[in-house]
């Protein structure tokens, strides 16, 4: 049994813990409400279901968007051409894509560096030789690497889609500096990247109408795959694990009932000793 002082201490601790949690929640909500950023709406993606996989036709179009639009400013140094095989391209197509770039390699036998056509083991090329060159070409802003951008931003592919399609005129009283553009989904609203997605800014190889929303959707899905190339395999393994655990659970329950049936059904009878 608990003493009166112990009950008092536990009650006080519970009240303080609940009050602290309520205060933290209230402060966190108020801080988020004060952010000068519009939170992206949750989109319906083909891969967002529990057992859904990527739309690989969309991923291929997304690669085309990255190659023709995004690659002019953004790098993807952690994605290699060989990872496209079986996802967006065949092996021959991936080799052809890699061969279009020139990669600095070496040194050769004379100690000199040389240029060679790309191989599928090479990563996507960077548009700038270093960070200083990237900042100089973008008014001091450094274009982030896009390899894991959906994992690095709250909202993931929803954020990328909203950012690409969210450019608009600044509200009254908001003044943009030279080289800045207004986007309510970007922190503070002022972003150095100009709007790059428009209707028919490119043509898809499969003939899909290149509307701005379609372009943004496809490249957002592609960036999601770049950040999580194991996405489909992880879900397949998860489904297999669930099936195996279901069977194992059924077998375990049957064995438990069988092993304990003799114990649960036995009867204990008291037979008093006979007095001598």
Give a quick rundown of the structure.
Pfam families: Cytochrom_C1. With 276 residues, the protein is mainly alpha-helical.
How would you summarize the topology of this molecule?
Elements: H1 4-34, H2 56-68, H3 91-99, E1 102-105, E2 114-117, H4 131-137, H5 149-152, H6 157-165, E3 181-182, E4 190-191, H7 212-227, H8 231-265
Antiparallel strand pairs: 1-2, 3-4
Helix pairs in contact: 2-7, 6-7
Indicate the overall shape: extended
Q: What gap, in angstroms, lies between the N and C termini? A: 46 Å
The CATH topology of the domain at 56-79 and 123-231 corresponds to Cytochrome Bc1 Complex, Chain D, domain 2
Give the CATH architecture of the domain at 56-79 and 123-231. Orthogonal Bundle
Structural class: mainly alpha
CATH class of the domain at 56-79 and 123-231: Mainly Alpha
Estimated share of beta-strand residues? under 5%
Mean pLDDT, to the nearest integer, reads 91
Rg over CA atoms, rounded to whole Å, is 30 Å
Family: Belongs to the cytochrome c family.
GO molecular function: electron transfer activity; heme binding; metal ion binding
Cofactor: heme c
Keywords: Electron transport, Heme, Iron, Membrane, Metal-binding, Mitochondrion, Mitochondrion inner membrane, Respiratory chain, Transmembrane, Transmembrane helix, Transport
